[in-house]
Amino acid sequence: MFGTVRRFAASQVLRAAAPRSVSARSIPQLQKWQSPLSLSSVVATRSLHSSFPRLSAVSAEAVEDVLESSRPAAPTGEFAQLATDNIIDGSLIKNIIQPDRMGLKTMTEVQFLTLNEIVKGDDILAQAKTGTGKTLAFLLPTLQNILNDPSVDPKTFARRARTGPSEIRALIISPTRELAEQIAVEARKLAFGTGLIVQTAVGGTQKRAGLAKIQREGCHLLIGTPGRLKDILSDPWTGVSAPKLNTLILDEADRLLDQGFSAEIEEIQALLPNPAEVDRQTLMFSATVPREVMQMVRKTLKRDFKHVNTVREDEVPTHERIPQKLVYLRGLENGLPAVLELAQKYQERAESENLRPFKAIVYFNSTAETKISAEAFSSLANSREFRMSPLGNVKMIEINSRLTQQARTRSADNFRRAREAILFSSDVTARGMDFPDVTHVIQVGVPREYETYIHRLGRTGRAGKEGEGWIFIHKGEHETYRKRLGRLPIKGDSPTNPTLLTAGADMSQPQSPDTPEGQIITQIQEALASVPADLKVSSYMGQLGTATSSFSYKGEAIQALNQLSSIGYGMATPPYLSPRLVQQMGLRGVTGVSVGDRPRESFSRGGDRDGFSRGGDRGFSRGGDRGFSRGGRGGRGGSRGESRGDFLFGDRNRGDREGFSRGGDRGDRGGFSRGGNRGSFRPSGRERYSDPSFKEGGSFDF
DNA sequence: CACGCAC
């Protein structure tokens, strides 16, 4: 599928300074490198919503016709041609095409479509699907532009002369540290032998050492995360400034321009030379550009910026060939058993059907949940039984922002290299990370944003490879799911023939030791039992915010969390919520809420060794301590037995598993039908498949 | 209370 013309809202199209648009289909002759845009640059006009009428200065229909007929057979050009045509330096191209280097031959669509624009010096917003080579798309022409800069003499590069901390020509900002490092690795491969110096500036590393390296080696291209970049650029003592900066690149631009980052991005921009004095090109790249950030995009880019879009508006914004499946969980406690069952079932048939080994990322909406899940699966993987199973070689790896940077880097490297592994991850890896051969992306719970889903899913199916996407949600999250993700081609599970038996199992009941699903559930319950009690509390607390906002009813969220803590975690009572928190979250009077002071012992033992001592102010800019306890937990199992008497599973006779929801009439599945027509746990087939957001057809090859 | 982002 090829790119299409970018549509601007009708009101914008009619503005005099409306940005031009570029598309693959607007470039009929791929050989015409010198001026492909002059051939067919199109002022594209279509509304952001395809239901809007098309408006155009020229006939939109005519444009579409021309574009259709000129659609090229291949989207790309050869990298080698760029050197032949003298567009890109031979050393850069050599680094790309040599088999023992990057080994690439042909440009991807986004690379092809942005190259001339960037070399020309225009501001652009480039939108392309995940895994289609956006990084190289901005690195290659940007490095070329530095080489083209007459104030930078290539001959001196080899001797590393005339490079210094003030020679920075381009700055790349990334929303996460790992992504910044990954971009730097690619940039250094590309720059090999050119004399161009690539440096990084990210948090969690020694600031002084990084600065010394920049002072010593110089820097033409600096890649970093917002906090550290702002730090070193605003600190006059660092000696690092960018008086000659010509290029600013925002990778994952929509993320960097959203609420959590935009203020810092603006502060960094204010630290750069005045664009009126030093001409500056700004480039933005992302797979997603939600409507809400377009205003920020316009504010940041020059008025005549170009929007290069390789995502057809009328197609799903991610690979259609990546099958995606929704599984309903009976309770939140069914999530981890379902993950294990999915892994087992795939791996059991992997060998006979010659499938790639299981390499999955499991995404959670809270850090504590990634940690408790990784702990449980790690302890599970230590058992002899597990090691003898088909999953015996699967490594369990955790990554989230509360690990030390050293541990984060190690986790990312281990997962990158692993053949068979499960990465339990927060959204720290959701964007841009390129882990080879990820077979499964599993999302537990409804992601906080539509875009989050797209980027997480994009960790699989990269570079033309296959993959599967799964999302596990509680039925109480159904409405939020529909609103947020309902437009995606996610296939619902069969109500009569469910894919994952553990997803729908009643975990409050004793499990049969004779069925695979019973064994899985028991394994998970026992593994969770050995997890330190404070981690269970943290996990509960960490899910409070997301659950109460993704469930349609707060009471149902509390009920589900309480059931998770008892049936899933084996806790005797759910954690207490302070009156203040209850007030803040609007939980006053909600059934099942345990109001009170947090049990001191949950936190006194072990303190914040997990990095989860709460109550701190986590905001960087607010001067608070984030509660990070560097150094991590050391080895596993150091504090076993902490879950002591709170472990209920020895008792198979307990009649009331809900325990703490007493007083509510919702002990069983009560309350779920309270909304009126919201139906039973599994929506009926008619409900599901008559809904346009549930697409039938296509085989989901489980 | 909820991703990530500096000391």
Descriptive keywords:
single chain; 702 residues; alpha/beta; Rossmann fold; 15 strands; globular; DNA-binding; hydrolase activity; ATP-binding; RNA-binding
Question: How would you summarize this macromolecular structure in one to three sentences?
Answer:
GO terms for molecular function: ATP binding; hydrolase activity; RNA binding; RNA helicase activity. This protein is of the alpha/beta class.
Tell me the overall shape. globular
Sheet-strand content, in percent, reads 5-15%
The CATH homologous superfamily of the largest domain: P-loop containing nucleotide triphosphate hydrolases
The helix content is 25-40%
Tally of DSSP β-strands: 15
CATH topology of the largest domain: Rossmann fold
Low-confidence parts, pLDDT < 50 over ≥5 residues? 1-20, 23-75, 600-611, 613-619, 621-702
Total domains: 3
Oligomer state equals single chain
Query: Spatial order of the strands in the main sheet?
Result: 1-8-2-7-6-3-5-4
- Reported CATH architecture of the largest domain: 3-Layer(aba) Sandwich
Domain Helicase ATP-binding: 115-307
Protein name: ATP-dependent RNA helicase
Biased composition (Polar residues): 508-517
Region (Disordered): 487-517, 592-702
